[in-house]
Design goal:
By secondary structure, the chain is α/β, with parallel strands linked by helices. Helix content is about 40%, strand content about 15%. The two termini are about 30 Å apart.
């Protein structure tokens, strides 16, 4: 999620890293309009594939739409093996969760899960209830210097780093200096590496609003300057690699080492629930298991989440994973042949239809919903003001005919669908 909460003139109204009141005041009209249009706080139930029956009444009376909002890119969130894993885990323990800190007592299934994830990702994996909590536990330790040989690093954020990362800037700034650079600005990052003895860079692997970090170039800076990398690959996990290592992990050597941490979601491409951290050393693992705040002072992922993740692990170790990865790639190609976006031609499943005007983006998203397609309208503070658009999440479970019909609807409502954007709404 891009850091869109700074006023367009670059001046911060209050504080250095927080301007919550400004963000709420500026974005409230967009939220109000999106809610009024029925585009937010939508309730429904999955039926088959990517179809969702909207509403809460009897199923046979509900309108059904094709969902392009959920981030289950491999279509695993409804997989029978994952659902069965959640049920089996609860039945085995006859419990949903234990109310105690993980530094004291843990489910035996959780130990199994972390061991299997460690094998799959060739790292020391710790599971968390969410990626947000994983990041919350990691950021203070990164700022303290405990991960960089006792020397506090300059912590550099990509301007488009997800809010679950950027939210922690004030806590980091209480320990060390924080800088924010332009999106994917490798030259600026290298300059900071030359000017400071210890630098840590915080970014996404795959960005939620489209695009990706230049992992190979970042790895080169790491080798040249000792750069510490903290990469949140929530949207890239499972989509690449023989066992679903993900966008970021698949581009690093087999041994992760002591200067890279990768955070990831088990709730998107992985198809289950929760988050994880991939660590490179035993010392890092011991540090996190003692001093990561969510680990030491909160509960573990619940048993349904653990069981579901164990079910997903079985899929990740089977030929089915590769089949779903290939099917996803085919679906992305179908969309790209019809609609041009800034992401056209990459192998990632997120496509952004740039509109510009918030009101126009909301109106177009409502038109798509009327046509039977639920997509995500994006506006400030998720993106910068005046840069509103429609996010389309393509999955392996989408039918080709549904993707083609969605493309037809997009092309009916917008013109000049190019990567240069913003797209100009069609005249009606």
């Amino acid at each position: 999620m891009p850091q869109g909460i700074t006023p367009s003139d670059g001046h911060r109204p209050t504080g250095h890293f927080r301007n919550t009141a400004y963000m709420i005041n500026e974005s409230r009209p967009y939220f109000d309009a999106a809610h009024a249009a029925g585009l937010m706080a939508v309730h429904g139930r999955s039926t088959s594939g990517r179809a969702v029956a909207l509403g809460t009444g009897p199923l046979d009376t509900r309108a059904e739409v094709v969902d392009f909002v959920r981030c289950s890119y491999l279509g695993l969130d409804n997989h029978p093996m994952i659902v069965a894993g959640a049920i089996d885990a609860i039945e085995a323990h006859r419990s949903l969760h234990w109310s105690c800190a993980r530094t004291r007592l843990n489910f035996d299934f959780l130990e199994q899960l972390e061991a299997i994830l460690s094998e799959i990702f060739c790292a020391r994996v710790i599971a968390f209830s969410t990626v947000m909590l994983a990041n919350l536990g990691a950021m203070p330790l990164l700022a303290s210097g405990q991960l960089t040989g006792g020397r506090k690093p300059l912590v550099v954020f990509d301007r488009s780093a997800h809010i679950s990362l950027a939210y922690h800037k004030p806590a980091i700034a209480d320990e060390t200096r924080v800088e924010t650079i332009a999106h994917n600005d490798i030259d600026a990052l290298e300059r900071l590496c030359r000017e400071h003895p210890v630098v840590a860079y915080v970014c996404d692997g795959v960005y939620s609003m489209g695009g990706n970090s230049p992992v190979k170039e970042l790895h080169q800076l790491q080798e040249r300057y000792g750069l510490f990398l903290y990469i949140d690959d929530a949207h890239g996990i499972s989509l690449f690699g023989r066992q679903g290592e993900g966008f970021a992990r698949s581009q690093f050597p087999r041994a992760l080492g002591d200067r890279t941490i990768i955070a990831a979601s088990m709730a998107k491409g992985f198809g289950a629930s929760g988050g994880m951290l991939m660590l490179g050393t035993a010392d890092q693992e011991a540090l996190f298991r003692r001093y990561s705040i969510p680990y030491a002072f909160s509960v573990s992922p619940n048993l349904a989440a653990v069981g579901a993740a164990l079910g997903s692990c079985r899929i990740h170790r089977s030929p089915e994973l590769g089949e779903r990865q290939r099917r996803l790639a085919q679906r992305i190609e179908v969309f790209d042949r019809r609609v041009a976006t800034a992401e056209q031609g990459n192998s990632l499943p997120i496509r952004m239809i740039a509109i510009g005007s918030e009101a126009e983006a909301i109106a177009i998203a409502r038109d798509l919903l009327n046509a039977g397609f639920y997509s995500l309208v994006t506006f400030f503070p998720t993106v910068a003001q005046g840069s509103a658009g429609i996010r389309v999440c393509i999955t392996a479970d989408h039918e080709v005919c549904d993707i083609e019909r969605l493309c037809d609807c997009i092309l009916e409502r917008v013109v000049n669908t190019t990567a240069d954007g913003p797209i100009r709404p069609a005249v009606t």
